[in-house]
Give the backbone structure.
Amino acid sequence: MLQQLRETIASVISNAKAYDVPGLCRRLGLADGTEEEAFKSKFRYAHKRVVELNVEAAIKCARELATEDDDYSLVELLAKVDELSDPVITTITRRRLMGLFKNKPLATEIKEIEFIRAIWPIAQMPAPIQGGGYTLEDDIYRHTIENDDLSQDELLEHLGLLTCSRAQLSKFLEAVTSPEFQEEEVQSQFASKINELLLKDGYTLQQIGVISGSPHYKVQKCSSGAPADQEITKSLAAFEPDQIQPRWEAALTSRSTDPERAITLARTLLEDVCKWILHEAGEMWAEHDDLPALYKKLAKVLKLAPDDHTEQIFKQILGSCQSIVESLGSLRNKLGDAHSIGPKRVKPHARHAELAVNLAGAMATFLISTWNERQKKM
């Protein structure tokens, strides 16, 4: 990457006028030289000075240069440097993401070429096959508008989706699920499938707000406050990725920033899981049923009531599970944000929210695993 960084810096510098190159190099802290040397070869002038830079100096130089020239290749390389310590979104996941758009338009609210222009500077990017001074925009126009001989996979590969920085990939995924570019129904379908794939690499496409009544998403790293968090996330996403898993992610995110909301979400998460399993089991539940009532019905279906077992240790553990569920319901009523706090109500701290969310996540995973095992025996 260091060699690539040096080459890219020299290439971007060489885009300047020959008489400006010495001054630009001086501003970047590189060795001085003459205009005559720069006129012979701008790239060699710059490369001769950049090749001496170590990693730290090269990154610093690149950042300085990026403030003067937002060249896409330079910005991308710096993004990749910044992402070195983070989990990668693998080529396997990227190919699967590309597969979601096979024979489907990237945007339904605007023309596809306009959508692409909003994400990539294709007018400045070179065509995949060099020659004739063609840009990537020329190439896309020729093969998607003048002729229809470029598959969606090939188009996304030309745009660099397999090799681009995580920041650029995230920009694309956030745009392709944005109400600005996508019909709400399509937006929801893409968001669910994208999220399911990203979770495998430790990321999530999380709803962070609403724009004109439609959800607004952002790619974020999965919370990693405890080793169990990601396992619970994967379990919930596999069970129900559209409603339950996003609620879990919201609860994780809120643990330290909004404990009251996190506590409410923890209780609601368990309610969701109970209702979904009861529904799949063909059992009825009433809208007014609270969490303890729902769990009591589900415990009968899954044979989790203490009376269903003879071993004292199992009776004790399952009795404790029932107590946890009842306590989470009470905790939400007392400390959550579903009711007015009043003048004297105790305000929860992050540790209270962490306890509630972790307990809810563990119980939800246990209920889902038990249900899955019951289904295998049917």
About this structure: The chain has three domains: 2-82, 91-221, 246-377. The chain has 18 helices and two strands.
